[in-house]
Fold this protein.
Amino acid sequence: MRQVIIFLATGAYTGYSPVAPGTAGSVVGILVGYFLCAPIWQDEPMIFAAIFAAAYVPACLIAGRAEQIFMQHDSSKIVLDEVFGMIATMFLNPLGWQWLIGGFVLFRIFDIIKPFPAALIDRKMPGGPGVMLDDLFAGIYANIVLRVAAHLL
């Protein structure tokens, strides 16, 4: 079970990237979002939202267990939060390559600057939910900016 947790928490081992593991995990999020999630949310967005919410709970448990394995709070090896954050970023947004790149850049910016309440969550919330929630907020912020841009263009 330990290997499964490590595989999932590290985004298929991309969290071991020696350079920018969060960025590598975000790329996994784009791929998972585009190939696995988008076909569902394009046809059944409410069903996808329910699946996302249901998957989020075990993802928090996996991230929390990975913290224990790596013996470090929010280890840079844990990129499952970036995967979910990128999926949240692209949810119901256009999926052309320009939009994917835009979503990626926006998510990385919001993930790095951590606007309220993401920074507070990152500092104060322990365990898996603390690992996962700041990136979910980054994804929500990036999603909103991307949706506004899509509406204006």
Notes: The chain has a mean pLDDT of 95. The CA atoms of residues 89 and 103 lie 6 Å apart. The radius of gyration is 15 Å.
